[in-house]
Amino acid sequence: MTASQDPIVEALQQYSTCDVSDALCKLKHPHGGFLPGLTLWSPQRQEGATKIVGPAYTVKYALLDDPEPKHPSHYIDSIPEGAVVFISSPPTPNAVYGGLMSTRALASKAVGSIIDGRFRDLQEHRDLNYPVFARDVGTAPPYGAVKVVGVNVPVQLQGPELEALAITTINPGDYLIGDLNGVVLLPRELAETVIPMMAKQSDADAKMAEAIRGGMSFTEASSQFRA
């Protein structure tokens, strides 16, 4: 079964990242699975209806002096169809992802890439109409600064916000959902629990919105439909 045939992916398509976070918060999952600092850069900068959903295909970068050996092959040539490419980078001003990577990812039928660090060649990604979420852009390539040390291995979220967060690990196959609100990580083992919760929650919110438009107060509508 490819990711595009995964019933979990199909079910998640109808919900926003906020819907997923709401359900995860009810399960007391830290921060509702939100991965801070990752925003949409392509095909537009925080505009449009771009949304990606798929299992994570992870890539771990490390600084050159890290004792872990360099991965023997290029990660970009083994992306599964329907995957979300998640690139983990240590803090560096160098970009760890570029236009040719999106060209190959698109040919492999990946649904988008999330760069926990910097990327470059912004216009190339936009010309491809390929979704990219990232922390920031840059110009320098990764060579001379970092190396790939793992592919499809657990990676940890980077970024300054982590001083206030528990360590977040992205495992291969966990579901990643990205839209204008940001990026949410749905652990694979929670997916079948979360989806019916979101369906119930979405139905309640739709009824609330209709009641509020009809003149009902938020407090009354919340009590009637969310109780």
TrEMBL record:
Entry's transmembrane regions: none
InterPro entries referenced in this protein's UniProt entry, alphabetically: RraA/RraA-like (IPR005493), RraA/RraA-like_sf (IPR036704)
Gene3D superfamilies from the UniProt entry: Ribonuclease E inhibitor RraA/RraA-like
PANTHER family from the UniProt entry: 4-HYDROXY-4-METHYL-2-OXOGLUTARATE ALDOLASE (PTHR33254:SF28), 4-HYDROXY-4-METHYL-2-OXOGLUTARATE ALDOLASE 3-RELATED (PTHR33254)
This protein's name: Ribonuclease E inhibitor RraA/Dimethylmenaquinone methyltransferase
